[in-house]
Amino acid sequence: MEFIHSLRGKAAALGKAIVLPESGDERMLRAAAAIRDEGIARVTLLGSADTIAAAAARHGVRLAGVAIVDPQADPERSAYVDAYFEKRRAKGMTPELARETMANPLFYGAMMVARGRADGMVAGAVNSTGDVLRAAFHIIGTAAGTSIVSSCFVMVKEGWTCGENGMIVFADCAVNPQPNSEQLADIAWATARTARALCGFEPRVALLSYSTMASGAGPDVEKVEAALAILQHRHPELLADGPLQADAALLPDIGRRKAPDSPVAGRANVLVFPDLDAGNIGYKLVQRLAGAEAVGPVMQGLAKGVNDLSRGCSVDDIVNVAAITVLQSQG
Question: Which domain holds residue 45?
Fold first, then answer.
């Protein structure tokens, strides 16, 4: 797919470094080799060098040029333990628990990212989303000015006349069940940044609702209205509007009719759903009924790039998410 090819090519031009903590999985070994071969990033696998070498030989994977760091033997281990203890001591962390936690490759990889030894981390092939995000929250934390970590999908379909160059970015489709107004504003801002980094276009953000402007009323509409006010106050340069119904957001003739004064109606390329029910249902309907490619979920809102995989992911999925993580590391 052209979009994926473009992501990989843009990532390769940046010369970034990615850590893969799940070296016990064959897919991760193959993905590490593929990332190296395509020059998408410099790759580090976490684990015992002997164990990784034996697994690579067993699966016929050549890992020359892929770095291997053993958290148990790494010279930086003591510094990482101390850093984690200091970061979490106010929350009851002890030196013993810090040492135990740093034995977990997810936390070790996140610390490598936090301390600049890697530009991003990709995990989730064998660990749950909760485990991956916990390591990212505890060590990396959220980006400045952001209160929440969220997700988005880039929906891609050749020939679409709506969106931008066959792409529309949907959020939040995987993380937050019932965001409040402030969180919804943060999701919109994070998604705009993701759209710019991955898709290369200037975002036009529609905050979706069952109401367009004042056509409906109720708490759900008021939540979206408040989110827009917060977003415009914090980021007045961002082109955003709402509440907008989906057709008013995407279709020029309906946008002009329902919201004639809107700078976004009829030409939105970023759709922010009011809750996880709507977002998850929406992206799956577009994926399955329209035949769109759903690239993601892409995690956003963290201070540095960490992305979570489905445990059913393929090698290609891992490589693609690594490229996305590299692009997010541009800031």
Answer: 2-141+302-328
